[in-house]
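Support reply, case 0932

Customer input (verbatim):
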Amino acid sequence: MKQKKEKPEEVSEETTPETSAAEPDYYEQLLRLKAEFENYRKRVEREKPELVAYGAESVICSFLPLYDAMLKAQQQVKKDASEKSLKDGLDMVFKEMTRVFEANGVKPIEAVGKPFSHEEHDVLTTLPCDCAEKDGLVTEEVQKGFKINDKILRHAKVCVGRFEKAEEEKQGEEKQ
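Our regenerated output:
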């Protein structure tokens, strides 16, 4: 909504030229501020794609050592397809991947043996367990979850234990 530009009040005869010159011109200040803000907005719009590209570039650069480790592992397996070389290659890849994750603040979510948490876990199924202490605890981790700082990147996909009483115990409780 456009507002009409109000004419400034007429300068009274009592006001001297020095007094009117000393009074701030709020309308001119507002126009300058508006122009500065427009320039800022345009600059941010121009720089946004550069910042996104820079973010992607830094992520890719942090994964280059991982690529190198995987390439070395692949070459080693092609040379010597023994079980030890395959194991060593995979260990090297996971060590490098863990280093990249730690450098970027990514941590795995510890799930097995912990109580189920809606915030960190996605339940795939419940598994029967033999004792009541395991009821509601994560018994198996199907897919690892990750956090970056305190934000969830991916929930852990888990199986949760569910204590089921034996049939004889259930029937004994029903009679009581």
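We compared this against your earlier run and they match. Two observations from our side: The chain has two domains: 26-104, 107-166. The chain has a mean pLDDT of 75. Please reopen the case if you see a mismatch on your end.
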